[in-house]
Specification:
5 domains; single chain; 5 helices; mainly beta; 50 strands; six-stranded mixed beta sheet
């Protein structure tokens, strides 16, 4: 009977301890970083009532017969499973998502914790705010954060660009003058008599007449009086020429031919019978049907007299005055002398003369439109002008009809301007303006300038493909700038990658190019601190720079359950925890560091309550064994 009492007593003690473990778990259900404890039982002793025996003869072997003498608490282990992370928003509240422990030191011993309730003390040392222990880095040394030093400046060494340069060219352009109307080569309206005898009889006492209508004007009466001898074709031609204007009669191989003095599609010639006397037109065999002139686009070989705008044919020695202003602003006044032995007789001859008179401009003739143009040899604004007028002689042309007007204004280069802040070696800020200028060959130059510095160097030759990507970069992509009190610094420029669209482009839209980055910065003060996933403590400065101020060490062990709990969520090494490995967060077996959060307890309240019921029932069952044994003993005493 005593064995039953002692077995039940050990059961009471074991379940009491289990209830203590469960109670401790529940009390730490909201303790950051707490790891659930687990009680494990094992039987304690056994009384052997019979030993095992081998089979022998006709008897078989028998198993041992033993009776247990109680239970014992054999192990209290820890569940190091990950607890839930709860955001706190505080910079130095740190948690580990995965294995490992932060390291802290009291000056003589290194301890470990999953609860990163850290902060800075008065000397900018990173400490555990619960204990005051100093936090250790990857080198095993306490972490001191330099929160007072300034971040040194860095001068600007490169500038990169993005955006668009316009594909549509509005400059640079050369001034172009073009005739407002086309030059054409015209033919006259002409009638030739069908009678070809060179002998025309008009009887004495008779008068033969006809009416000549030129260009739809008033009829001009031609009369021829009779005579004893016949008229020749030349005689009649002379008579017609003496009595008419705007038309010229000639002897065409014994036939009379009438031709309008002017040429072109607007020229008409019509004959009508005379109002009295015999019909002279019939005598000459001239048709009474209207005939018209014709015209076509002129060429450089077209005679000046063949232009429909020619009013009176030029004669040898007639002078056409060429006047105006050349592209460089110089005045031009020259005389074109008409004639085969002089300056010429054709449109091409006149163009050659003008070309020589205007050394800074180039004439051209469009064979498709018949328009004459003058183009300045250089781009940019100019006062180019050209006027033609008849100076002396009998020949005349309606030159105002061919007045040259500006069809393309001379303009400077297309420009796009952007500015960016740059820094000298002392960290002082300056503004540099960069102007993109389109060149005559379609490439772009970049002209740098500064209001408070001396800039030298020109970035030239930025070219683009038809699809808007960069075709080729400038041979030299840098310029120099010197600010007061500083040495000259070289600044390189980056426009992007040829063939790609990762920088400046040239599309058919407005200019939007801008300097998007530069690598310089001024002096910076510490403005903020954060901790990233690998445990780097990063300082953010007012100049936009980031600096690592310290590195948190994360310790991992072969056997986390071998660690010894020392209170305050701290753990100490033991011989069975295994070799310690120190690394940064998220390296090797170490978990990821999460800033602004704490790891919660991994206690499951529901599971603990279930175990508490089990422990209570186990305690109750062992207590019942004791009471039952007590009753049996009482009965035994009553037998005495």
């Amino acid at each position: 009977m005593p064995s039953a009492l002692f077995a039940a007593l050990s059961g009471l003690q074991a379940h009491e301890n289990w209830i203590s473990v469960i109670g401790n778990n529940l009390s730490n259900a909201n303790t950051p970083g707490y790891k659930t404890a687990r009680a494990v039982f094992s039987d304690q002793f056994s009384q052997t009532l019979r030993y095992a025996s081998l089979p022998s003869g006709s008897l078989g072997g028998r198993n041992p017969m033993q009776m247990g003498l109680g239970v014992q608490l054999s192990d209290i282990g820890r569940d190091f499973d990950q607890g839930a992370l709860a955001a706190t928003g505080r910079t130095f509240d740190l948690a580990l998502n995965g294995r490992g422990h932060f390291m802290v030191s009291d000056g003589s011993n290194t301890l470990y914790t999953r609860v990163g309730t850290f902060g800075l003390d008065a000397t900018s040392r990173l400490v555990d705010q619960r204990t005051g222990f100093r936090v250790l880095g990857t080198n095993g040394q306490p972490i001191n954060l330099d929160t007072t030093s300034l971040y040194p400046p860095s001068l600007t060494g490169s500038i990169s660009f993005a955006g668009n340069l316009p594909a549509t060219i509005t400059g640079p352009l050369a001034q172009v003058l073009t005739t407002s109307t086309a030059m054409k080569e015209g033919t006259a309206a002409s009638l030739t008599g069908s009678v070809n005898g060179n002998s025309f009889n008009v009887p004495v006492g008779e008068t033969w007449t006809m009416e000549v209508i030129v260009d739809g004007g008033a009829p001009q009466v031609v009369s021829l009086a009779g005579q004893a001898s016949p008229y020749t074709a030349q005689d009649i031609a002379d008579a017609i020429n003496a009595q008419t204007s705007g038309v010229t009669a000639t002897d065409n191989g014994g036939a009379v031919q009438l031709t309008t003095d002017r040429t072109g599609a607007a020229r008409t010639l019509k004959l009508a019978s005379g109002t009295s006397g015999q019909d002279l037109a019939s005598l000459l065999g001239l048709s009474l049907n209207q005939v018209n002139g014709a015209e076509s686009i002129a060429t450089t070989a077209t005679s000046l007299n063949a232009l429909p705008s020619n009013l009176v044919d030029y004669q040898n020695g007639d002078v056409i005055e060429v006047a105006g202003v050349d592209a460089d602003g110089s005045s031009v006044l020259a005389s074109f002398v008409y004639g085969a032995g002089n300056d010429g007789t054709t449109v091409g001859d006149l163009m050659t003369f003008i070309d020589n008179a205007f050394p800074n401009s180039t004439p051209s003739f469009n064979g498709s439109t018949g328009q004459f143009s003058m183009t300045a040899d250089t781009t940019g604004p100019s006062n180019l002008s050209l006027t033609l007028r008849d100076q002396s002689g009998v020949g005349r042309t309606d030159w105002p009809q061919h007045a040259l007007i500006t069809t393309t204004a001379g303009t400077g280069p297309d420009r796009a301007t952007t500015s960016i802040e740059v820094f000298d070696s002392a960290g002082s800020s300056h503004t540099v303006t960069l102007t993109f200028e389109r060149q005559d060959d379609g490439s772009w130059n970049v002209v740098p300038s500064s209001g408070d510095g001396t800039v030298s160097g020109l970035v030239s030759g930025l070219r683009f493909n038809a699809n808007g990507s960069i075709a080729s970069l400038p041979a030299s992509s840098s310029f120099q700038v010197q600010f007061p009190g500083q040495s000259a610094q070289t600044v390189t420029v980056d426009f992007g990658t040829p063939g790609l669209f990762d920088g400046v482009t040239q599309f058919g839209q407005a200019a939007s190019v801008f300097a998007d980055q530069q690598d310089g910065y001024g002096v910076g003060e510490l403005s903020n601190i954060s901790v990233n996933s690998d445990g780097d403590i990063q300082g953010f400065y007012t100049n936009g720079q980031i600096q690592v101020l310290g590195e948190l060490g994360v310790a991992t062990f072969v056997n986390d359950n071998g660690l010894r709990e020392v209170g305050n969520n701290l753990w100490a090494e033991t011989p069975n925890s295994g070799v310690r490995t120190v690394s940064k967060g998220a390296q090797g077996n170490a978990g990821q560091v999460t800033g602004g959060a704490l790891e919660g307890s991994n206690v499951s309240v529901a599971e603990e309550f279930v175990r508490l019921i089990e422990a209570q029932r186990g305690f109750q069952a062992n207590a019942r064994v004791i009471t039952t044994t007590d009753e049996v003993l009482a009965e035994l005493v009553n037998l005495l």
